[in-house]
Amino acid sequence: MSTPAAIAHAAHLLRQGQLVAMPTETVYGLAADATNTTAVARIYATKGRPAFNPLIIHVPSYQAATELGAFSPAAQQLAEAFWPGPLTLVVPYIGTTISPLARAGLATVGLRVPAHPVAQELLAACGCPLAAPSANRSGQVSATLPAHIEADFGTEVPILPAGPSPVGIESTIISTLNTTLTLLRPGAITPEAIAARGLTLAPHTPLSPTSPLAPGQLASHYAPRAPVRLNATQHEAGNAWLTFGTHNPALASAPSINLSPTADITEAASNLFAALRELDSRNPTAIAVVPLPTHGLGLAVADRLTRAAAPR
């Protein structure tokens, strides 16, 4: 866990308009002061991220979020149920401080209250909302370990280390702009968990990849260098494998990582990005992925893998 001195230093850098890679329970984020347009521009430049792709704004509490966005009764219910936690809510923007660049010029804002204790301590120490997309090069595999950030950025970005990201997959994003709640990006907060709160959620329907309302909607995203083959059942020469559940003896001679030997989709989600990075480092001709569950958290895993496999 990061020390108080390390958190204080990271907060100082952020107040000075610099970037810091910060831990959250989902993945590591490339954080900047969301009220500082120059700092936000550094995020886009460092990641190579298109400026039409808005950033999630991290705040310490629901009360802080209400100073920036207008919360409908349903949005309030979601916030009370799942914050702090891996849920981002897209709401009408009512604040005056968030950089328009962070919102990609939209009249909306994506807000999240992270549950990670270091993220909470950093927010308290820096005293400002933090724009923090995943700490990786744009479109590539997200970072769940400090080593992943070092591999992407070297010494360019200071890191506030706190071990592996416990959830390992980005937040669920829900639009609350209309009377119907809309799933913009699947994540750790599943449609089933939301339905259990008595809320109706429209199915996940990707919007235009050239004018996204929220992060994670580009057609190609979370992608390793190697092509990705989904629902693979036949081995091809030079492939590395992502497996799940019972070991397949036929793959004994191929590089492989089992996302969860016990077929636990939560464990698989937490291991996904690290496994993709590890297999990609072996320079395979392709990464073959066995069929995986698509219900519950499996919906989010399937979403990330579908984007990883999309044409580039």
Annotate the secondary structure layout.
Elements lengths: L3 H12 L4 E3 L6 E5 L3 H11 L8 E3 L3 H5 L6 H10 L4 E6 L15 E5 L4 H10 L3 E2 L14 H8 L18 E4 L5 E5 L5 H5 L5 E2 L25 E2 L9 E5 L12 E3 L6 H16 L5 E4 L8 H11 L4
Parallel strand pairs: 3-5, 4-7, 8-9, 10-13, 11-12, 11-13
Antiparallel strand pairs: 1-2, 2-6, 3-6, 4-5, 7-8
Helix pairs in contact: 1-5
Describe the structure.
- It is built from 9 helices and 13 strands.
- It has 2 domains: 4-202, Alpha-Beta Complex (DHBP synthase), CATH 3.90.870.10; 228-308, 3-Layer(aba) Sandwich (Rossmann fold), CATH 3.40.50.11030.
- The protein has helices spanning 4-15, 37-47, 62-66, 73-82, 117-126, 146-153, 191-195, 265-280, 298-308, and strands spanning 20-22, 29-33, 56-58, 87-92, 108-112, 130-131, 172-175, 181-185, 201-202, 228-229, 239-243, 256-258, 286-289.
- It is α/β, with parallel strands linked by helices and 312 residues long.
- Helix 1 crosses helix 5.
- The longest helix is centred in the last third of the chain and has 16 residues, at 265-280.
- It is globular.
- The strands form 2 sheets. Strands 1-2-6-3-5-4-7-8-9 form a 9-stranded mixed beta sheet, with helices on both faces.
